[in-house]
Automatic annotation (TrEMBL):
GO terms for molecular function: ATP binding; ATP hydrolysis activity. It comes from the Bacteria. Residues 5-234 form the ABC transporter domain. It comes from Soehngenia longivitae. SUPFAM superfamilies: P-loop containing nucleoside triphosphate hydrolases. Keywords: ATP-binding, Nucleotide-binding, Transport. SMART domains: AAA. It holds the Pfam family ABC_tran. This is ABC transporter ATP-binding protein. InterPro entries: AAA+_ATPase (IPR003593), ABC_transporter-like_ATP-bd (IPR003439), ABC_transporter-like_CS (IPR017871), ABC_Transporter_VariousFunc (IPR051782), P-loop_NTPase (IPR027417).
Length: 252
């Protein structure tokens, strides 16, 4: 399969602090790739570099075979991004924001409107005529999801997409992403909900202190355990040096 997300020695420094340190990724077409790590590990910084909103200090990014450095505008038409904190125009109504996206990406409105209606019905979105400034976090998250899913991008980057979603919507999103990947798109997702990553991701990369410390499917990650851990949660805690959680809880 063709590589859809590739980074070579991707690094980012903020002064003397190294947030991301020579991360190499190779994610294939149709793959759901889970990118996991503790808070502050470098997940969001990596996604921002992969999507062109943050310039790397070193390294290269290729999306769908194209160099991000030279083909940024073309690539941004091919990808969809769901940030961890949706930043939307609060003075717009939901349907006005979607019209804005349709115009920016030069989409055929006759083709897109049925998709918006279908996604709105699925996610229980009945507030597109209301101002975004009155939305809760979860409502904004659903609007962002609709704005990306309706375009059917070749690559989707999702940073903690289930935060703020109710259980039904989170399950629906998981199923939609699986269907999207089966149709040939690539899904690159960060999440703290390890159960989601364990059930839906084809491969998982674990970043800690800016470095990619482990990568593979669940069976391959299990081989890295020195303690015989088999669940993703236990593997994650062991590999990131946080396996003392149980001892801490018992001591309280």
């Amino acid at each position: 399969m063709e590589t859809y997300v590739k980074s070579v020695d991707l690094s980012k420094r903020f002064g003397d602090y190294i947030a991301v340190n020579k991360v190499n990724l190779d994610v294939k077409q149709g793959e759901i790739y889970g990118f996991l790590g503790p808070n502050g590990a470098g997940k969001t910084t990596t996604i921002r570099m992969l999507t062109g909103t943050l310039k790397p200090s070193e390294g290269e990014v290729h999306i769908c075979g194209l160099p991000l450095r030279d083909r940024e505008l073309e690539i941004k038409r091919m990808i969809g991004v769901i940030p961890d904190e949706p930043k939307l125009y609060e003075g717009l109504r939901g349907n006005e924001f979607l019209d804005f996206i349709i115009g920016i990406y030069q989409l055929n409105k006759d083709d897109i409107i049925p998709k918006i209606e279908e996604l709105s019905s699925a996610f229980g979105v009945d507030y597109l005529n209301d101002y975004i400034g009155d939305y809760s976090h979860g409502m904004k998250q659903k609007l962002m999801l609709i704005s990306v899913l309706m375009r059917e991008p070749k690559v989707m980057f999702l940073d903690e997409p289930t935060v703020g979603l109710d259980a039904r919507s989170a399950r629906l999103l998981k199923d939609l992403l699986t269907k999207t990947a089966q149709k040939g798109s690539t899904v690159f997702i960060t999440t703290h909900v390890l159960e989601i990553a364990e059930k839906m991701c084809d491969r998982i990369g674990i970043i800690n202190e800016g470095k990619l410390i482990a990568e593979g499917n669940l069976e391959e990650l299990r081989l890295l355990s020195k303690e015989g851990n088999t669940s993703l949660e236990d593997l994650f805690l062991e590999l990131t040096g946080n396996e003392d959680v149980v001892d801490i809880v018992e001591a309280l």
